[in-house]
Design a protein that fits this description.
This protein is of the alpha/beta class. It has helices at about 35-45, 80-90, 105-110, 115-125, 170-180, 230-235, and strands at about 10, 15-25, 50-55, 95-100, 135-140, 155-160, 185-190, 195-200, 200-205, 210-215, 220, 245-250, 255-260. It has one domain (about 10-260): Metallo-dependent phosphatases (Purple Acid Phosphatase, chain A, domain 2), CATH 3.60.21. It is built from six helices and 13 strands. α1 links the parallel β2 (about 15-25) and β3 (about 50-55). The longest helix has 12 residues, at about 35-45. The chain starts with 7 loop residues before the first strand and ends with a strand.
């Protein structure tokens, strides 16, 4: 298992553009899991050769007796959920850029040092793309141009996230506050809050080499959850949110990121 600060590098010399779909909070095994939509999404990814995914945690609901959720409401037992998710991701293994666990998978880590996300990635022979807490990823687009210059390089940080708040403002504030600490990162991708959103703060960059001060945009993307509202969310009076998967598009010739719901 590689450490969090071991940067994951991907090179795409033949792609003019790249589409990245942030995936988190699938919660396979929960009664509210959107099974039909999730399966259709996996099929759609395969039909687009430019589509790739990052796995941001809580792929499984992973209900244990010590969990706050009701273990008896799970639709499949934990080991069966792990097998099912592995089978679902097997056709997509060449499209997975990285994976981190979420707080639901960490239940097993705390109880028995067993992280199902790590097991799934090992089964897919993608152990090198797994990080236990946060993944830093470098994506290099295209080959060198005729003038010898390299095409754009993008740097992303992926972690599951934590905390947040009942209202969207609390989620935005917490994630943007952490994003400001990530110097040199173009985008932060998180999940956890089940509130899909995109924000775009900026950082002031002082370039002493060229004696220039510039403003660098920084994307913060909170991935959509694959859950219907109800159950635990209803008990805790959590607000419902829309299911709106995002797509992050990276240009290959000129450095440009565009994120859409």
């Amino acid at each position: 298992m590689l450490g969090d600060f071991e940067i994951i590098t991907h090179q795409f010399p033949d792609r003019p553009n790249l589409k990245i779909y942030p995936i988190a909070d699938v919660h396979l095994g929960a009664a509210e899991h959107m099974e039909r939509e999730w399966k259709r999404f996996c099929t759609d990814i395969l039909s687009d050769p430019d589509a790739y995914i990052v796995l941001g945690g809580d792929l499984l609901n992973w209900g244990l007796k010590s969990s706050v959720s009701n273990v008896y409401a799970e639709t499949v037992r934990p080991r069966e959920a792990k097998r099912m998710m592995t089978e679902m991701l097997t056709p997509l293994k060449e499209r997975i850029l990285c994976a981190v666990p979420g707080n639901h998978e960490r239940r097993g880590m705390k109880e028995a040092d067993d992280d199902p996300t790590y097991d799934i990635m090992c089964k897919l022979d993608l152990e090198s793309l797994y990080r236990e807490n946060i993944a830093f990823m470098k994506i290099q687009m295209g080959a060198k141009n005729g003038d010898g210059k390299q095409n754009p390089t993008y740097t992303l940080a992926i972690t599951h996230g934590a905390g947040g708040g009942v209202l969207s403002g609390g989620t935005i504030n917490r994630n943007e506050r952490f994003a400001y600490a990530l110097n040199g990162v173009d985008a932060l991708i998180v999940g956890h809050s089940h509130k899909p959103m995109i924000s775009m703060p900026s950082q002031i960059v002082v370039d002493t080499k060229n004696n220039r001060v510039s403003i660098k945009p920084l994307y913060v993307v909170v991935a959509s959850a694959w859950m219907e509202w109800g159950g635990y969310a209803a008990q805790k009076m959590l607000l419902p949110s829309s299911h709106t998967p995002q797509i992050m598009m990276l240009r290959g010739r000129k450095k440009e990121i565009r994120v859409e719901m």
